[in-house]
Design brief:
Length: about 500
C-alpha cells in the first residue's frame, strides 16, 4: 500500500489532465495538455480523436519526470459526455467527433421533439436538445448518409482512449445516460430510442459500472506510454460525475458549483428527479442521483476573452512564466463591484438552463468611454456568476434542496472569481483542496482495484477542504439588483436573436 500510486486521466472539453495520487489522496504528480476544438462553421464544434491520445502521451511523459510509472497500480479515465466516436468495420474513426456544445442539430431537435418528444423524455429522463448524442447522429444521418452507413461501433471519448490502451470497448451506465439512447428506469440501452433514427443497439458498447476493471494495459500501450504492461484499467465515468465525487459530494443536499468550461449546479438527490429544464444522472455512489442545472459557457467565456483581447497579458505570461489568468485577474481586481454598470451575458454557444435556447448570443451591455479592459474582464466573471444564479433559481423553483455549496473547476482557482460567485449566490462556499476530475477518477481507480473499501471510504480518506468563502452581504444586495437587469435584458433580446438567426 505504501508504494501504491493511482492514475486518474481526465479528458475535459479543452484538454487532458492527469493526476497521480497515493492512497492518502496526496497528489504526487500532475500534468495537463490542451487540444484543439474546431469550429468549421458557425455553431459547429468538433474534435479529432487522435488529438486526445497525443495529449495523453504528453501528460504521461511529463508525470514520468516526477514518479516511477511502474509504481502505478491502477488507472481510470473520465471525459465530457454526449460525444460519440464513430468507427467503421476496421475500427477506424469515420469523422471528427461532434462535441456537446455543437448547435448544428437544431432542426433534428425540433423534428424529434415534435414527433417523439414525450417518449424520449419518458424513457431517457431528458428533454431533447442539441447537446445529446441522439440528435447529433440524426444530423449525420440526414447530412452525411455515407458516414452514417459506415458506423460499426460507437464509443465515447474516455472509452475510445481506453480502447487504445486495452482493446476493450465498454462504457459505464452514467456516460450511457448522456446519449438519449438509454432507458433510465431499466438501466439498459433502449431499442425504442435507437429505432427513432434506425440505429441498431449492436453498435453500442457493453455497459458496466464506473468501478469495474475493463482490461489491462497491452504491450503496445505499454510501449507507447511507459506504463507497466498488465496494469489494470478501471472503466471510469463522465467528467462531471468524477468531479462531483472527487470534491466530496456524496451526501443528499450537497451542491456542486462548477466553474469550468461549462457551468453546472449539481444537487445530490435520493431519487431521480427529471425536469425538462435540467439534466438527470446517476451518481457513482449506489442509490444516489444528481440533478444538473447547466450553462454552456462559464470559464470558457474567460478563455475566449483571453484569446481575443488579452494579447498583452499572454505576451507577459510567455516572457515571465507567470500564469496568464493570474495576470488577467490582477487587472480585474482594480475594478469595483458591478463593473461600473457593464453587464455580460455569457451565451457564446447559446444556452442551456434556464432558457434552453440555442439562438441566444453573448453580449456586453452598458459600455461607455469610461470602461477599460479591467471592467470587461470583471463583467465576464460577474456575467458567468449571474448565469449560475439563474441555475440556482431554477433549482429552487422545481423543489431541489441545497444546503452545502462546493465550488470546483478551473475558475475556482481564482480567489476573485470565487468571491464574486459567493457574493452573487449569497451562500457560503467550500473550496476543496483538489477540484480536478482526474483526482476523482484516480479515487475511482483505487476503488476498482480494491485499494479502498468502497467509494465513500475513498472520499473519507482522501478528500480535504482548502478553505471556505463567506459572502459580502453588501455586495450580495447590489448584485441582486444587477441580476434583475441581467435577466430583463436577456428576456428582451431573446426574441430578437431568434429573428437574427433565421
Amino acid at each position: 500500500m505504501e508504494n501504491t500510486l493511482l492514475l486518474g486521466i481526465d479528458f475535459g472539453t479543452g484538454g487532458c489532465k492527469t493526476s497521480v495520487i497515493d492512497t492518502r489522496g496526496v497528489v504526487r504528480a500532475e500534468a495537463s495538455c490542451d487540444y484543439q476544438t474546431y469550429h468549421p462553421k458557425p455553431a459547429y464544434c468538433e474534435q479529432h480523436p487522435d488529438d486526445w491520445f497525443s495529449s495523453l502521451l504528453s501528460c504521461i511523459s511529463s508525470i514520468a519526470a516526477s514518479v516511477d510509472l511502474k509504481r502505478i497500480s491502477g488507472l481510470s479515465v473520465d471525459s465530457s459526455t454526449h460525444n460519440a466516436v464513430l468507427l467503421d468495420k476496421n475500427m477506424q474513426v469515420i469523422r471528427p467527433t461532434i462535441m456537446w456544445q455543437d448547435q448544428r442539430s437544431t432542426k433534428e431537435v425540433a423534428f424529434l421533439e415534435e414527433h417523439w418528444g414525450a417518449d424520449i423524455y419518458r424513457i431517457g429522463y431528458q428533454k431533447v436538445a442539441t447537446t445529446w448524442t441522439l440528435p447529433q447522429l440524426l444530423w449525420i444521418k440526414n447530412n452525411e448518409p455515407d458516414n452514417y452507413r459506415k458506423i460499426h461501433r460507437i464509443m465515447f471519448v474516455k472509452d475510445y482512449v481506453r480502447y487504445l490502451l486495452t482493446k476493450s470497448w465498454e462504457t459505464d451506465f452514467i456516460d450511457a445516460q448522456g446519449t438519449l439512447f438509454f432507458d433510465m428506469a431499466k438501466g439498459e440501452w433502449s431499442p425504442e430510442l435507437c429505432s427513432l433514427i434506425g440505429l441498431s443497439t449492436d453498435v453500442l458498447p457493453p455497459l458496466c459500472k464506473p468501478t469495474d476493471v475493463t482490461g489491462i494495459i497491452t504491450s503496445e500501450a505499454a510501449r507507447l506510454t511507459g506504463l507497466r504492461e498488465g496494469t489494470p484499467v478501471v472503466c471510469g465515468t463522465s467528467d462531471v460525475t468524477a468531479e462531483d465525487y472527487g470534491a466530496g459530494a456524496v451526501k443528499l443536499g450537497q451542491c456542486i458549483v462548477k466553474l469550468a468550461t461549462a457551468g453546472n449546479l449539481n444537487i445530490m438527490t435520493a431519487t431521480a428527479m427529471p425536469h425538462p429544464k435540467t439534466l438527470t444522472y446517476s451518481h457513482v455512489i449506489p442509490n444516489l442521483w444528481y440533478t444538473a442545472v447547466a450553462t454552456n459557457t462559464a470559464a470558457s467565456s474567460m478563455r475566449w476573452f483571453r484569446e481575443m483581447f488579452c494579447m498583452a497579458e499572454q505576451a507577459e505570461a510567455d516572457r515571465t512564466g507567470r500564469n496568464v489568468y493570474q495576470l488577467i485577474e490582477e487587472v480585474a481586481k482594480e475594478v469595483t463591484v458591478g463593473s461600473n454598470g457593464l453587464l455580460f451575458h455569457p451565451y457564446l454557444m447559446g444556452e442551456r438552463a434556464p432558457c434552453w435556447d440555442s439562438n441566444l448570443r453573448a453580449s456586453f451591455i452598458g459600455a461607455t468611454m469610461a470602461h477599460h479592459k479591467g471592467h470587461f474582464i470583471r463583467a465576464v466573471m460577474e456575467g458567468v456568476a449571474f448565469s449560475l444564479k439563474d441555475c440556482l433559481h431554477l433549482a429552487c423553483e422545481i423543489g431541489l434542496r441545497a444546503d452545502e455549496f462546493i465550488l470546483i473547476g478551473g475558475g475556482a482557482k481564482s480567489r476573485l472569481w470565487s468571491q464574486i460567485v459567493c457574493d452573487v449566490l449569497g451562500e457560503k462556499i467550500i473550496r476543496p483542496k483538489n477540484t480536478d476530475a482526474s483526482f476523482g477518477t484516480a479515487l475511482i481507480a483505487g476503488v476498482g482495484i480494491g485499494v479502498f473499501e468502497d467509494l465513500v471510504d475513498a472520499v473519507t480518506q482522501c478528500v480535504r477542504t482548502e478553505d471556505e468563502i463567506v459572502p459580502d452581504l453588501d455586495n450580495h444586495d447590489y448584485y441582486k439588483k444587477q441580476f434583475g437587469f441581467y435577466k430583463e435584458i436577456r428576456d428582451k433580446l431573446q426574441p430578437l436573436y431568434v429573428e437574427m438567426n433565421k
